[in-house]
Amino acid sequence: MKAAGLCFAGMQRRCKDLLLAVWIGAFAPMATAQTLTLEDLPRYTVPPPETGPVLDVQVEHWRREGLALEHGDGVERDPVRAAELYCRAARYGDAEAQFNLAWMLTNGRGIQRDDAQAAHLFAAAAEQGVAQAQNMLRAMGTPRGAPPPCLRPPEADEVAAAPLPAAPNPAPGRVTVEPPWPPPPAHAPAPIVNFVSLVAPDFQLAPALVLAVMATESNFNASAVSPKNAQGLMQLIPDTARRFGVRDALDPAQNIRGGMAYLRWLLARFEGDVVLATAAYNAGEGAVERYRGVPPFAETRLYVRKILAHLGGRRTHPFDATVTPPSDLLPLMRGPGRWR
């Protein structure tokens, strides 16, 4: 994920007010009667799931419209509607919308104050590199409880097909219908395809999944190094490389084996759910568990869409339950509104 580093457009006026809002909250018992009316302000309504595909330009439009309504720029000020639009964009990983909604909730700017929700929203924006959100999170502390609805994966992201079984290891005699594994990407180098095809079965992995991750991570560039020091074909960060016994992450064979070991572990952790496993490969299993599904990060959401496109819509993969126990939170990731 790329760091933002700078104030977003429309945020300059509030950058100096943020810590002040938290300071005021600490002294709520001594607040004036005017401050106490924050409890009487209206709550915004979480928008319903979208009915069709949502493009990035639509998400940006929601955020821009919300900004205008929040400040009354060219339109009549409507903080409730602004919060609803920010919520819509926040669900699709828009970091600025997440920050703006968190600020409204912290400051009681036209909507009822809710520091618990705000902390989660600041955390999501902070994890996407928003410096102001990182400052606010340090002041507010670690979020507690489940993420608010505005950070839950929207239903519109689910593949428009019949729901697949939760567990991809079918019982004896039971047939699970899935699309066939696709051929290797046309631009994948033959030596890499041959190596993956030879080694993937040792890790109980379909070569197509490994190649899809590799194409999305590094585009088959063995010397790729990201700003976060993720290295090689499978873009292993140093901690993950050590975790799976990789001594030289830029050695193609070691890198591929380490990435395969991590994929096998993630598939066991999420019981063969390709969406959750690949989201965790990108953002970390902790983020997937914390957000009860695909995290509300624009990069991760795009990453999962690319993986699914490479796999032709296939969303499950056999897994080895002896590798690691499943996530305790897995049942919460399979309910309505989750990107299954």
Helical percentage? 40-55%
E-strand count: 0
- What order do the helices and strands follow? HHHHHHHHHHHHHHH
Largest sheet, in brief, is: none
Q: Name the CATH class of the largest domain.
A: Mainly Alpha
Radius of gyration, rounded? 22 Å
What is the CA–CA distance across the termini? 23 Å
Flag low-confidence runs. Answer: 1-6, 19-38, 156-168, 170-175
> What CATH architecture label of the largest domain applies?
Orthogonal Bundle
Shape: elongated
Structural class: mainly alpha
CATH third-level topology of the largest domain:
Lysozyme
Q: How big a fraction of the residues is strand? A: under 5%
Per DSSP, the total helix count is: 15
Number of domains: 2
Mean pLDDT: 84
GO molecular function: peptidoglycan lytic transglycosylase activity
Family: Belongs to the transglycosylase Slt family.
Organism: Rubrivivax albus
Pfam families: Sel1, SLT
